[in-house]
Amino acid sequence: MIDNYDNIIQKAQTLVEALPYIRAYTNKYVVIKYGGNAMNSPEIIKTIMQDVAALKTVGVYPVVVHGGGPEINAMLSRVGKQSKFINGLRVTDEETMDIVQMVLCGKVNKNICSLLGSMGVRAVGLSGKDGGLIRVRKKPPADGVDYGYVGQITSVDADMIEDLCLEDYVPVIASIGADANGVGYNINADTAAGEIGAAIGAHKLIFLTDIDGIRRDPADPSTLMPEVSVADVERMIEDGTISGGMIPKVRGCVTAVRRGIKHVNIVRGTIPHAILVELFTDRGIGTLIKE
């Protein structure tokens, strides 16, 4: 019986700790970028969506922005195509673009919406091509590299996202955009999340990743940095501490910070209930990027 009371008391203390944070985020936009290895485990996927549902229940306006790298890679392998990445960006020819759109819009996006729906959440699946939500232009070649159908965001329709949230929906946005002629382009999901968060004036932007945050030594988990400045990020990119797929991720963070979002975090997405731990506990987890 005492053990049961201890359990109940612990749960009550957790709730008391969370209450001031819940009040702070009520009626605020929280953008969650979801992708990577967090999409590979049904158990982790379920806890992430439970977190999104919990945010909705307590009056937060969550917006989910997703990629689908593992799913895209698997489909490309099936058709005998090999992925090529440069500075964390997928080089995307016309056939690859068709597959990216099919996987992100036709499979991943709808699976997320369906799972949220099973939890009582009214989720609406979108891509940047829907209603001109995300306008892009072709990313210009860099260092002699033509990225193909990779888009550079020129505008985000913030009103569409805000209207959906206010109508009690959770927008679930696939990272694809369209140019002025309606041609589809692949967008790095981290970049899309940063631009979307900045456009709607999000109170918080959480990047769920495969690692626990930014480290002074990428190979040493004990060097995790709880906070870094934008200047630190730029220096770490220059000296190679931040490289590969982490570059667009931290660039998305920097964009969001410079556009006025004060709370931008990189968090390990494979930790059960990582979103709630970051938002509603005193310590939080991961790395906070600040000005």
Q: What does this 3D model show about the protein?
A:
By secondary structure, the chain is of the alpha/beta class. Helices cover 43% and strands 21% of the residues. It has helices at residues 2-25, 42-57, 69-78, 94-118, 158-166, 189-200, 230-238, 246-258, 274-280; strands at 29-34, 61-66, 85-86, 89-90, 123-127, 134-138, 151-156, 170-174, 176-178, 184-186, 204-209, 227-229, 264-268, 287-290. The strands form four sheets. An eight-stranded mixed β-sheet has the order 5-8-2-1-11-13-14-12, with helices on both faces. Strands 3-4 form a two-stranded antiparallel sheet. Helix 3 packs across helix 4 (94-118). The N and C termini lie far apart (50 Å). The relative contact order is 0.16.
Task: Spell out the key features of this protein.
alpha/beta, 291 residues, 8-stranded mixed β-sheet, single chain, globular
Short description:
By secondary structure, the chain is α/β, with parallel strands linked by helices. Helices cover 43% and strands 21% of the residues. A hairpin with a 5-residue loop joins β9 and β10.
Mean pLDDT: 89
H and E string: HEHEHEEHEEEHEEEHEEHHEHE
- In DSSP terms (H or I, runs of 4 or more residues), the helix count works out at 9
Major sheet strand order: 5-8-2-1-11-13-14-12
- Class from helix and strand fractions: alpha/beta
| Beta-strand content | 15-25%
